[in-house]
User: Which sequence fits this backbone?
């Protein structure tokens, strides 16, 4: 199965620190809209902190893919919300 990270720019997808920062930016953005910024930022930080000592490359790749999937889903959601168009197909 190909990595979901190919949908993100390589400089973001291949660098955990940049991925972490982008996750924090999204958490702050969503948190500001929903008035729960601290909670969301703390959740992102805790997830990265809990897994900082992981050494298994497959697990690391899965976690990076999961983070990338979350970012992509949020980007699509925001694009749909702002444009009023549906980009994803629903059955």
Assistant:
């Amino acid at each position: 199965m190909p990595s979901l990270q190919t949908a993100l720019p390589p400089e973001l997808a291949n660098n955990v620190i940049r991925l972490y920062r982008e996750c924090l930016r999204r958490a702050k953005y969503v948190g500001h809209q929903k008035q729960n910024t601290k909670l969301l930022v703390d959740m992102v930080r805790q997830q990265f902190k809990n897994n900082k000592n992981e050494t298994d490359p497959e697990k690391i790749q899965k976690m990076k893919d999961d983070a990338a999937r979350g970012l992509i889903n949020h980007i699509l959601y925001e694009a749909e919300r702002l444009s009023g168009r549906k980009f994803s197909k629903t059955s």
Notes: Helices lie at 10-13, 16-34, 37-50, 57-83. The radius of gyration is 14 Å.
